Design the sequence.
């Protein structure tokens, strides 16, 4: 009987405990709602009392979060910070608590700790602009200017409008950049100006000029030129109105020439000419200076260096025809001296350099053809001569007369049985002098050797037409060797 009463008593106790637990949860939820309501009503002390009541049955993330808010509002920053730290221990994955924490740490001027809290917030919520803006602020306070600029750029990439509004009202970029530069913090000053170009687009030209000035002082003339050119495109009237800019671009051109950056130097002088057309004299003078350098190197037999100097002169001023002619005259003249000494490979290399310099040099192609023929590269020689004829037939006619030299070479190739090569040279002779009967005769004989009888007959018919038009009595003193 006693055992049955004990079992009944235990069950009654279990039901009572379960009811009491449910009632406790209900009371805790109700108290949390009450604490939040008091917090919203700015009854901070009362909200804290409610939190203390809840803590008697066990604390939670929400309790510490409310306590942190209330302490902060009451100006009790250390207590607030402690509450936030305990909230993080209970739920380290809620970005809200880190945001509260970094604001509070900044109030306490603990910028290193605030920066660390900011980094945690970014890891948990990487698309919130405010995190990056505050990170930039704390880095500025720590005088880590380049890193601050990177953080601000990240904020700008997420939300351009709000970031621009926030930063332009907060930071005087020009003053900050100038201060850094004056204190010899060059890299940081550049970072500030580059950020300002992103943020304050209306004043971008001003910041570009500042960057150009810094690069100029650092002897980084190409970078300086690029910065100034972009600024000029943004505000051309400002440059036109200030005569000093003409001298700046001339000076840049001189420095770039001295550093062998001729393309950039040309660009600098073109800017100076655009601002003041009278600067063309300076532009021309530099071209002549480069030409003189090339001629001196040629006279010293430094042919490779001379070629580079001529190329520099043309890169600087592509419109100067005299430079092309001078280069060909000297470099191909050197090739001829090699050719005369049977230094064919050296001569060929010089021709190839000349063609790399001027791909339409007829003289270089004709010389190349002669060299390749001497090296027994008959097909390549033919291609070189054919290209020269395509570019300037008159030049080739003037050099080779009626084309008989190609007939002779065709005959030389025909004898040992190089019929296709022979045919190519007869073709060249015909292109130079379309009425050259001996060239047609060689072509007919060679086509016959190649078994191309129908082509041979057509060439024979064409030759007869040419002869008839010339009203001559016989086709040729020699009888045709071709028989059908």
Sequence:
């Amino acid at each position: 009987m006693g055992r049955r009463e004990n079992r009944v008593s235990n069950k009654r106790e279990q039901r009572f405990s379960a009811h009491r637990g449910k009632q406790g949860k209900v009371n805790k939820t109700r108290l949390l709602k009450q604490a939040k309501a008091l917090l919203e009503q700015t009854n901070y002390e009362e909200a804290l009392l409610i939190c203390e009541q809840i803590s008697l049955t066990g604390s939670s993330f929400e309790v510490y979060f409310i306590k942190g808010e209330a302490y902060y509002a009451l100006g009790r920053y250390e207590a607030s910070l402690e509450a936030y730290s305990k909230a993080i221990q209970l739920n380290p994955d809620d970005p809200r608590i880190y945001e509260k924490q970094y604001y509070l740490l900044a109030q306490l001027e603990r910028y290193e700790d605030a920066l660390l809290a900011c980094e945690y917030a970014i890891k948990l919520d990487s698309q919130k602009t405010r995190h990056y803006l505050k990170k930039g602020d704390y880095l500025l306070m720590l005088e880590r200017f380049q890193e601050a600029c990177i953080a601000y750029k990240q904020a700008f990439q997420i939300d351009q409008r709000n970031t621009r509004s926030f930063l332009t009202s907060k930071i005087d970029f020009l003053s900050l950049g100038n201060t850094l530069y004056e204190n010899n913090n060059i890299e940081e000053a550049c970072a500030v100006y580059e950020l300002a170009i992103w943020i304050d687009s209306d004043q971008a030209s001003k910041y570009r000029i500042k960057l150009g000035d810094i690069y100029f002082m650092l002897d980084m003339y190409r970078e300086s030129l690029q910065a100034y050119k972009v600024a000029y495109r943004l505000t051309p009237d400002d440059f036109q109105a200030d005569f000093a800019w003409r001298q700046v671009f001339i000076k840049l051109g001189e420095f770039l020439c001295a550093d062998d950056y001729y393309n950039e130097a040309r660009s600098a002088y073109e800017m100076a000419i655009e601002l003041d057309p009278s600067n063309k004299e300076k532009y021309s003078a530099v071209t002549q200076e480069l030409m003189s350098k090339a001629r001196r190197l040629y006279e010293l037999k430094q042919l490779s260096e001379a070629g580079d100097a001529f190329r520099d002169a043309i890169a600087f001023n592509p419109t100067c025809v005299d430079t092309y002619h001078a280069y060909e005259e000297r470099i191909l003249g050197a090739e001829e001296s090699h050719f005369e000494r049977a230094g064919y490979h050296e001569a060929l290399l010089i021709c190839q350099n000349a063609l790399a310099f001027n791909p339409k040099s007829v003289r270089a192609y004709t010389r190349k053809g002669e060299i390749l023929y001497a090296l027994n590269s008959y097909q390549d020689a033919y291609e070189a001569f054919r290209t020269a004829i395509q570019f300037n037939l008159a030049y080739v006619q003037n050099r080779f007369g009626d084309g008989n030299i190609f007939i002779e070479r065709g005959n030389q190739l025909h004898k040992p049985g190089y019929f296709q090569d022979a045919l190519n040279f007869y073709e060249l002779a015909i292109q130079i002098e379309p009425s050259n009967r001996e060239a047609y005769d060689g072509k007919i004989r060679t086509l016959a050797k190649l078994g191309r009888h129908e082509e041979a007959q057509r060439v024979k018919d064409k030759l007869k037409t040419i002869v008839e038009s010339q009203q001559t009595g016989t086709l040729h003193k020699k009888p045709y060797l071709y028989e059908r």
